[in-house]
Amino acid sequence: MTQSRPIAPGVPLPTLQPRPAPLRGDLTGCPWHDVKEKLREVGLRPTRQRMALGWILFAKGDRHVTAEMLFEEATHAKVPVSLATVYNTLHQFTEVGLLRQVAVDGSKAYFDTNNTEHHHFFIEDQNDLMDIPASDVVVGKPPIPPEGYEIARIDVVVRLRRKQG
Ligand SMILES: [Zn+2]
Questions:
Q1: What is the whole-number distance in angstroms between the Cα of residue 30 and the centre of ligand 1?
Q2: Alpha helix locations (H) across the chain?
Q3: pLDDT for 145-158, tens place per residue?
Q4: Residue 90 lies in a domain
């Protein structure tokens, strides 16, 4: 059942944790320093690997990366990390709110360096994500979550394909 759904409001598994305060105000313009500061603020120890991966991730502004993409960039930048470490780091960053995971389909997890509220276009034949401002999407009546859960957030993925003809 992997039929594409035109609109897939993926309500992620509720991992209820306090949302970190917006971090964007305190940036100094020095990426290395900013990464250290970001990690400190969310309580992650700034290890070499986290620093290096964070620097590669966040120095280029808002973007969407997969673990494979980041691994490739790290390899290029001669940062000695394994793909497993890249995965772990991306998940750690996501858990503390530095990244947002975008669920496009089962096979690929995209991580978004823009951790503010927004939605996505997914261009199917290019495997590419584009941001949609939160204000451009009106989410209708949200479903009632199961007993004991609350909705952490609603992600809308609007899947695009080229017009035929
Ligand atoms: Zn995004």
A1: 23
A2: 31-41, 48-58, 67-76, 83-95
A3: 999 999 988 888 99
A4: yes
